[in-house]
Amino acid sequence: MLKLREKVVLITGAGSGLGEATAIQVAREGAKLSLVDVNGESLEKVKKRVQEVAETEILLITADVSDEEAVKNYVHKTKEHFGRIDGFFNNAGIEGKQNLTEDYGSDEFHKVVGINLNGVFYGMKYVLEVMKEQGSGSIVNTASVGGIRGVGNQSGYAASKHGVVGLTRNSGVEYGQYGVSIKAIAPGAIMTPMVEGSLKQLGGDQWEEAGEEFVKSNPMKRFGKPEEVGNLVSFLLSDEAQFINAAVIPIDGGQSYQY
Fold first, then answer.
1. Boundaries of each Ketoreductase domain copy (predicted)?
2. Are residues 154 and 181 in the same domain?
3. How far is CA 34 from CA 22, 31, 44, 211, in A?
4. 145 and 214 co-located in one domain
5. Per-residue pLDDT tens over the stretch 9-21
6. In this structure, are residues 245 and 176 in contact, taking their beta carbons and an 8 Å threshold?
7. 108-128 pLDDT, tens digit each
8. At 55, phi and psi to the nearest 5?
9. Of the four, 45, 103, 200, 228, which is 20 to 30 A from 21 by CA?
10. Domain of residue 81, residue span
């Protein structure tokens, strides 16, 4: 039995990484998709990949999630096209540059927070209006291991992801009474383009070697796979996970529990 048959799932940051992997998995589970990304060409490529594994209806919307009007618009277009929104993977995000806090640029800080935190807030604000009216829905926000512990040289990223955790817990408490379940995932080092970019900042041309060294500190001694996150999000968006609310769920190989 398909967990998301006929459900409408909205995904931001759908053009690559966790968003792409989740789009493929929820389509396999029967969902109709509204895919949002700042890069329209990437969305077209993801649409083709989804159609290779599942026959489903797909709406593509190009939008910058740090722009409140653009967020309001992608929610409106999704509701107008499908008539409802059953699941929302509020996922778009960036890492930003790495630097000590004293050297971290203010403009860079505001850029990272604008996408990672403001974008998540705007998405929740307008999707929650739809779900409250429906009396049902599931939201999964992308936080991070960096939202539940410190990560050096990433002030903007850590601050934004801690904020996502706070929004998730607070809104879960507020909206459970309306039949809406809200949770966050806290991925560790999942091999996505964003993590690859981070390794290149650290290791330059030797980034693959830097990655091999980095995963030695993980209890499972490897990077996570985007499809592993997609599987988790697909479950969390389903009716089977409806009573999981205001929760933050690590998917990090045990990284967040190390001293």
1. 7-188
2. yes
3. 12, 10, 12, 33
4. no
5. 999 999 999 999 9
6. yes
7. 999 999 999 999 999 999 999
8. -95, 110
9. 200
10. 8-188+226-242
